[in-house]
Write a structure and sequence with these properties.
The structure is a single chain. This protein is 29% helix and 28% strand. With 360 residues, it is of the alpha+beta class. Strand 11 and strand 12 form a beta hairpin. It is globular, with a radius of gyration of 20 Å.
Length: 360
C-alpha cells in the first residue's frame, strides 16, 4: 500500500511539475503514430459505460482485445471514455526518454511522482514496460509500449487495468482483485490473495449450472445494491495444476509455454454461453485450501472479508486509495461473509455455492 510519506511526496512534487503538458506531448506522439499507421476502433460496454479503444495500427489489437471480447458492442459516436493505444516499433514513432528519474515512481504500483494530480494520472507498469496516462477532464487515456515483444502473457489476460481503475473509480465502480460466479438472480464475490483458491473455484464452476464473471479481477459497486460486473473473460491456473480441470484443456491459450507461464484461458472463445456481464451480489466467499476431500462453508465477519479483499486490491492497482477502500468497505458490509473451505473433490464446490445462493 502507498505510504503516507510517499503520497505526500507525490502531492508535493506534483505541484512542481506539469502533468498536463506531459500528457499532451504523449498525445501528439500518438497522433503521429496514428497518421503513420492508420486508426482502428473497437467498442466495449464496461460497467454500463461505452468505451472506445483507438489503436494506431494493428500490432496491439490481438493482445489487448480478446479478454474484453464478451463485452464488445456496436460503435457509438460519443463514447464515455476513449483510450488511445500505440507501440513505437510497429508505428515507427519514437517515445523520448521519460522526464523523470528511474526512482520517481511507486515501487510496486508504478505511479509517477510529480506527474499525477486530480486531473492527470500517470503510471509506468514494470513487467509490461507500459505507460498508462489518463486525462479525467477529457475522458481520454493513452497506453504505450515500446514493442509488443515486451508484453507478458498476463497483460493480455487483464489489459488496461490502470486506466480502467482510475476512470471507473470516479463513477462509483471499483476494480477489485476478486473473481465472481453466480446466477442471473445473484452470485458471490471470491476474494483473497493469489494462491488462495479463487481461480480453482471460479473455473470449476464453469462445469456446473453456475455462470462466470471472472477469476481474477471484477468491477463492483455498492449502489444502489452490491453488484458485480465482468470485465475480463479470462482465467489463469498454475501450470502444474491444469490436469484437475480437464474440461478446460482446449481453452489454454499458451500451452506451448507452460514451463514458464501460468495457463491462460480465454473463456469467451470457448464458453461464451457461460459468461454473465453482471449480477447482484449475495455473499462474499474467502476460499481456503484445506487438503480434505469435502468443501464446506464457515460463516465469518465482515472484517475477515475486508482483510481478504482490500490489501491485495490496493497493492495491485495504481490509483486505488481512500475512495476505493470506502467503496469496498460499504460493499462488504452489506453482504454475509464465509470461508469457503475447499476440498479436493472439485464437483462439490459449485454444489456448495448453489446451495448457499438458494438460501439467500
Amino acid at each position: 500500500m502507498m505510504t503516507n510519506e510517499l503520497a505526500s511526496e507525490i502531492a508535493t512534487k506534483t505541484e512542481a511539475k506539469d502533468p498536463l503538458a506531459f500528457f499532451n506531448t504523449v498525445y501528439e506522439l500518438y497522433e503521429k503514430a496514428e497518421a503513420a499507421s492508420g486508426s482502428i476502433d473497437r467498442f466495449y460496454c464496461l460497467g454500463g459505460f461505452k468505451i472506445r479503444l483507438r489503436f494506431a495500427g494493428s500490432a496491439l489489437i490481438s493482445y489487448m482485445t480478446p479478454a474484453l471480447g464478451h463485452l464488445a458492442t456496436e460503435p457509438v459516436s460519443d463514447p464515455a471514455l476513449t483510450v488511445c493505444l500505440w507501440d513505437s516499433a510497429s508505428t515507427n514513432t519514437v517515445m523520448p526518454p521519460p522526464p523523470w528519474q528511474i526512482n520517481h515512481h511507486h515501487p510496486k504500483r508504478g505511479e509517477i511522482i510529480g506527474f499525477t494530480n486530480e486531473r492527470i494520472h500517470t503510471s509506468f507498469q514494470w513487467g509490461a514496460f507500459a505507460l498508462s496516462i489518463l486525462d479525467s477532464d477529457r475522458n481520454l487515456g493513452i497506453y504505450w509500449v515500446e514493442t509488443t515483444e515486451q508484453l507478458p502473457y498476463w497483460e493480455a489476460g487483464s489489459p488496461l487495468r490502470t486506466i480502467f481503475n482510475v476512470w471507473m473509480s470516479k463513477r462509483g465502480l471499483q476494480l477489485v482483485h476478486a473473481g465472481a460466479v453466480g446466477m442471473p438472480s445473484g452470485g458471490v464475490l471470491l476474494v483473497g490473495k493469489g494462491g488462495s483458491g479463487k481461480s480453482t473455484t471460479a473455473l470449476t464452476c464453469l462445469n456446473s449450472e453456475l455462470f462466470y464473471a471472472s477469476d481474477d479481477y471484477s468491477l463492483i459497486t455498492s449502489d444502489p445494491t452490491p453488484t458485480v460486473f465482468s470485465i475480463y473473460s479470462t482465467g489463469k491456473k498454475n501450470a502444474d495444476d491444469v490436469q484437475r480441470l480437464p474440461f478446460l484443456a482446449k481453452a489454454i491459450s499458451n500451452s506451448d509455454r507452460l514451463d514458464s507461464e501460468k495457463a491462460l484461458y480465454f473463456i469467451n472463445d470457448h464458453f461464451p454461453e457461460k459468461i454473465l456481464p453482471s449480477f447482484p451480489l449475495q455473499a462474499i466467499l474467502i476460499p481456503r485450501i484445506t487438503g480434505g476431500s469435502n468443501t464446506t462453508l464457515k460463516a465469518t465477519s465482515s472484517a475477515a472479508g475486508l482483510a481478504a479483499l482490500v490489501p491485495s486490491t490496493i497493492l495491485q492497482l495504481p490509483g486505488a486509495g481512500k475512495e476505493a477502500c470506502e467503496l469496498m468497505t460499504k460493499t462488504v458490509s452489506q453482504l454475509p461473509c464465509y470461508y469457503l473451505e475447499l476440498g479436493t473433490d472439485l464437483k462439490q464446490i459449485p454444489e456448495v455455492i448453489l446451495s448457499l445462493l438458494s438460501k439467500q
